[in-house]
Amino acid sequence: MPQPPAPQIWDISQVLRPGLPVWPGDTAFASAPRWTIVPGGSPVNVARFETSTHAGTHADAPLHYDAAGAAVADLNLEPYLGPCRVIDARGAGRAITADFLAPRLGQGPPPRVLLRTFDVFPHDAWVSDFTAVAAEAIDLLAARGVVLIGVDSPSLDPETSQTMDAHHAVRAQGLRILEGLVLDDVPPGDYDLIALPLKLAGLDASPVRAILRGLAP
């Protein structure tokens, strides 16, 4: 019998590279060779790199917004793996509110929700006036059984926020966060998400390789 086609895969990760836009004042990505293959010398290439824990597509750990929160190496991986829904949230304005999100969420969403806000993801320039997420929208997601929120913007809260209202709503509700997703080519709908953070001891976030898999028909 013919085999069913393999599910389509969307890579929704940024490329970690020199020149990658990062939060103003944060550590820029840099890399350099440590050993290089040469005749009679090293038989291998080995490189080193430096980056922020929040570079590119990344998972925030509770330690990022809670001094007593868990580090990324200590997190349960279950929220980062499983059914999710991609929602087109373009046109929300400065922040995605509960009123904006509710009719797009439906009555029974999967436990992971990813929100697209950019018409075209800004791969080569930092955008300061990105769309944030209101704390009330976080509360709505939690009430609907959502355990992870993902956004294509670099943060749930505005760049100038000092109160971090959305992050603290996430803390209060026990959700997990993905930021910096690239959702340009992903139609709204339901998928399987795989976006596992690295096991970095004592750190507040981790870059992830995030992918979506199409659901079996």
Compact summary:
The chain is α/β, with parallel strands linked by helices. It has helices at 98-105, 135-143, 165-173, and strands at 9-11, 30-35, 46-50, 58-60, 81-88, 95-96, 112-116, 132-133, 148-151, 176-179, 189-194, 205-207, 211-214.
Question: Main traits of this protein?
Answer:
217 residues, alpha/beta, Glucose Oxidase, domain 1, nine-stranded mixed beta sheet, two-stranded antiparallel sheet, globular
Explain what you see.
- The protein is of the alpha/beta class.
- It has a single domain (10-14, 53-214), classed as Glucose Oxidase, domain 1 (3-Layer(bba) Sandwich), CATH 3.50.30.
- The protein is 12% helix and 25% strand.
- It has three helices and 13 strands, in the order ββββββαββαβαββββ.
- The chain has a nine-stranded mixed sheet with strand order 1-13-11-5-7-9-10-4-12, with no helix packed on it. A two-stranded antiparallel ribbon has the order 2-3.
- Strand 9 (148-151), helix 3 (165-173) and strand 10 form a beta-alpha-beta unit.
- Helix 1 (98-105) runs parallel beside helix 2 (135-143) and helix 2 (135-143) runs parallel beside helix 3 (165-173).
- The longest helix has 9 residues, at 135-143.
- The chain is globular.
- The mean pLDDT is 96.
Helix content: 10-25%
C-alpha termini separation: 17 Å
Tally of alpha and pi helices: 3
Give the SSE string.
Answer: EEEEEEHEEHEHEEEE
Could you give a short account of the major beta sheet? 9 strands, mixed
CATH class: Alpha Beta
Q: Per the principal axes of the C-alpha atoms, what is the gross shape?
A: globular
Structural class: alpha/beta
